[in-house]
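Changelog note: in this version the structure field was regenerated for every chain. One regenerated record is shown below for reference.
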Amino acid sequence: MENKRAAIYIDGSNLYHKLSSETLKFENLKKFNYRGLAEWLARDRRIVSCRYYVGVIRAKPSDQKGQELRQSQQKLFSHLTSQSQRFTIREGYIMEHKGIHYEKGVDVEMAVDLICGAYDDIYDVAILLSSDTDLIPAIKRVRSLKKEIEYIGFAHQPSLALQRHASLSRLLIKEELQPFVYKDQPKLDL
């Protein structure tokens, strides 16, 4: 691990939903120490890039709930970009179909960044916090370029397919995540 360069790719929606799941029950998330988590995941490796991927909430001026969600997301973005080594926020979008909201474009952004980072020799290891199996073709290509992919999942709901294709996998449990939850910050509802 000595002097390896690590790029960290976080699927924001995936992380949020896993943390607030019935199993982990971080339903009172105030703010989350994303930088602390990134450093912990990197261990002895030098972080060269931290990217956070999320569908951007858009709301009509007359949509009060949508405006509240959008403002909360903007606070999250400010929090991410203010951390000691800033996160790059990569935006997808939210699409509504028959009353159901879908996040679009996030997995494509992640796949492109994984592959471009490998080709451009930006990292030695990509630390991927996502359970999106759409990323498997990108993971295969990155590994064929002799780069490592470390899949970070959740013990209560791992992606066996991503585990199978990654160089290494780590499954997080609640006790490992607890230190990254701030107790005294205002709540971010996403």
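Spot check on this record: The helical segments are 12-19, 34-42, 64-82, 106-119, 136-144, 160-165, 174-177. The first helix runs from residue 12 to 19.
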